[in-house]
Specification:
Blueprint: H1 9-26, E1 36-43, E2 46-56, E3 62-71, H2 74-89, E4 97-102, H3 111-125, E5 129-134, H4 140-148, E6 156-161, H5 163-180, E7 198-203, H6 209-215, H7 220-228, E8 233-242, E9 245-250, E10 253-257, H8 258-267, H9 275-287, E11 291-299, H10 318-323, H11 327-330, E12 341-353, E13 377-383, H12 387-395, E14 409-421, H13 427-437, H14 440-449, E15 462-464, E16 467-468, E17 474-485
Parallel strand pairs: 4-5, 4-6, 6-7, 7-17
Antiparallel strand pairs: 1-2, 2-3, 8-9, 8-17, 10-12, 10-15, 11-12, 11-14, 12-13, 13-14, 14-17, 15-16
Helix pairs in contact: 3-7, 4-5, 8-9
The structure holds adenosine-5'-triphosphate.
Length: about 500
């Protein structure tokens, strides 16, 4: 794009303006997908204005592209730079100051390099000021956020690492927000205050499931661009309590039985690297343990959507918008026994998916129709069945068949649930079980009390977003939209998007 010199600034300005608006429309600048003005440089007597913008690539990836305008008139160029910069400054959703935590040991230990080489230059170009903390030990970021961080100075918190690192940020930020609001996080009935700061994830871990589920790809540049353009994706968080004591928050998967056992076993095999998950998965599948207990839950009422829907939670999801927080629902409690449902049984797996839990290994995820911000979690109960049937269920996570369309699997969309393993049940509950299930139970109980006989163990562990919980009897409550991410959810049919690929400028 070249403009010949002229002393008449105003008409030239208009032409330049019209042409640029056309360019910007094509690059989607006017729909806020434009990234940022990068620089103005003088070349001999020509001035260049380079405008950077987001270009969509395949598989939900974003790239930073640039278009350069040249003009012999330096003053005109400067006025253009000023005008565009003014427009950009008016977009208040974009962060200006970020607090960044880098886990140098996450994934392949490339967090520092990924940030320095791929992300920091983009933040610098976008004029975002950063305060970077390289963590020195586990829970460093969480504890810093809880007490020391001067959060008022920042527009967002970014973690460079995997799901464990994200979890640290979530725990630190939620705890701090509740403390600042004088709320008691130990009370499971407390209505928590939503965090005002958004969280960004630069994926540099082993699995990066949260990033994949909210952005659609695990790519540091794409995540950095979502942060720069100031995207915002609200997210539900489950609080987990045991006897009125806070244990953890969960945003993705809470799994007892199969997924708890796989995590416990894989933790002992860290030396194997990422392959440990496959190894432990196979081992636990062959071991085929089942666990007895009681699940009680409050079904989600007055919401649209079910776990069996064909529609998926995507960018601008109407289900999330419809089911958003409603004041009357926020204080839902187990006030009476009859407001919840109760299921006793033997389970191979009890899973609560607060999002699809899609990842590169399971592109559909554990609950494909789960929503990021609808205030519910999908409670999936896999009852005791044969190994062959359980394999059928597991394989359906990777193909197009419905993993819930099996007579030993049930799924409920809930706002709260409790689990009580059988060994923790009161005597009266055990008597009730006995009456319901007959005398076969007596021999089962003897086996459980004397594990040396080689029967199934009495209890498993909860896998809470990749961490093992210390208690098995838990009370889980969904808090609608407790946090916000620098993301926009997975965009629909990205490959067919009109703005994908290189924009073609025709003048
Ligand atoms: N400096 C550090 N030294 C040791 N551990 C750390 C440090 N900083 C953070 N951690 C801990 O490392 C754990 C794993 O980190 P992270 O989640 O970034 O990587 P990952 O486990 O490889 O990835 P993923 O969780 O996606 O599988 C986190 O739970 C975090 O608490």
């Amino acid at each position: 794009l070249g403009l010949s010199g002229s002393s008449e600034l105003s008409p030239l300005c208009s032409i330049f303006y019209l042409m640029s608006v056309s360019v910007l429309e094509r690059t989607n600048i006017l729909k806020r997908k434009f990234l940022t003005l990068l620089f103005v440089k003088t070349k001999w007597r020509l001035c260049c204005v380079s405008v950077s913008y987001v270009e969509r690539c395949q598989q939900h990836r974003w790239r930073c592209a640039a278009v350069t305008f040249t003009c012999p008139d330096g003053g005109l160029c400067q006025s253009w730079v000023g005008a565009i910069a003014e427009q950009l400054a008016a977009i208040t959703s974009r962060p200006r100051r970020l607090l960044i935590y880098i886990n140098p040991y996450g994934g392949k230990r490339q967090g520092g390099r990924v940030y320095e080489q791929k992300v920091a230059p983009l933040f610098a170009q976008a004029a975002i000021s950063t305060h970077v903390i390289v963590t020195e030990h586990a829970n460093h970021a969480r504890d810093h956020l809880r007490t020391d961080a001067e959060l008022k100075k920042y527009d967002g918190v970014v973690c460079v690492g995997g799901d464990g690192m994200f979890s640290e940020i979530v725990h630190g930020l939620i705890w701090r927000t509740q403390m600042d609001s004088s709320l008691d996080p130990n009370s499971p009935d407390e209505t928590l205050t939503s965090c005002s700061l958004r969280i960004g994830i630069i994926p540099a871990g082993s699995t990066d499931c949260i990033c994949f589920a909210t952005v659609g790809t695990n790519d540091p540049v794409t995540s950095a661009l979502h942060i720069i353009v100031g995207d915002s994706q609200p997210m539900d968080v489950c609080s987990i309590h045991h006897n009125n004591t806070f244990l953890r928050y969960s945003v993705s998967l809470l799994g007892y039985g199969f997924y708890g056992d796989v995590l416990t076993d894989s933790e002992r095999k860290r030396w194997m690297g990422p392959v440990r998950y496959d190894f432990s998965g196979l081992k636990m599948f062959l071991t085929h343990h089942y666990y007895e207990g009681t699940v009680s839950y409050l079904p989600a009422r007055g919401v649209v959507g079910t776990p069996r829907d064909a529609a998926r939670c995507r960018s601008g999801c109407v289900v999330c918008q419809h089911n958003g927080p409603k004041p009357s629902e926020r204080a839902e409690k187990y006030e009476t026994d009859d407001c919840g449902e109760t299921i006793r049984g033997k389970f191979l797996a009890i899973n609560a998916a607060s999002m699809s839990c899609a990842c590169p290994r399971s592109p559909k995820g554990l609950s494909p129709a789960a929503h990021l911000a609808d205030g519910t979690t999908d409670l999936i109960l896999v009852r005791k069945c044969s190994r062959f049937d359980f394999l059928r269920h597991l394989l359906r996570h990777t193909n197009k068949e419905d993993q819930f369309d099996l007579n030993f699997v049930e799924v409920h969309r809930v706002v709260r649930f409790r689990f009580m393993p059988r060994h923790c049940q009161s005597d009266s509950d055990l008597e009730l079980d006995l009456l319901e299930n007959g005398k076969r139970q007596i021999f089962g109980q003897i086996c459980r009390d004397h594990p040396a006989c080689g029967c199934a163990p009495a209890y498993s562990s909860w896998n809470c977003d990749g961490e093992i919980l210390t208690h098995t009897a838990i009370d889980v409550r969904v808090h609608c939209r407790l946090i916000k991410l620098f993301a926009r959810g997975i965009e629909e049919s990205c490959d067919a998007h009109p703005y994908r690929g290189k924009p073609k400028f025709v003048f």
